[in-house]
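G., the chain you wanted modeled:
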Amino acid sequence: MLIDGRIVKQDRTMVSHDTAKVVRNAVASAHAVRTRAGGVLTPTSPTPPTF
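Predicted structure as tokens:
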């Protein structure tokens, strides 16, 4: 797969990004948003989950 002239996916595998890092950043971001939102979506742990 080409995006902006760069190969980002080859043989169904991401080649230009660290997939684990992208997932960690997304989890941390979602945790921060839920913490700020409060209410029933507030996480029970002060730290984001790890995978």
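The longest strand covers residues 2-3.

Shout if anything looks off.
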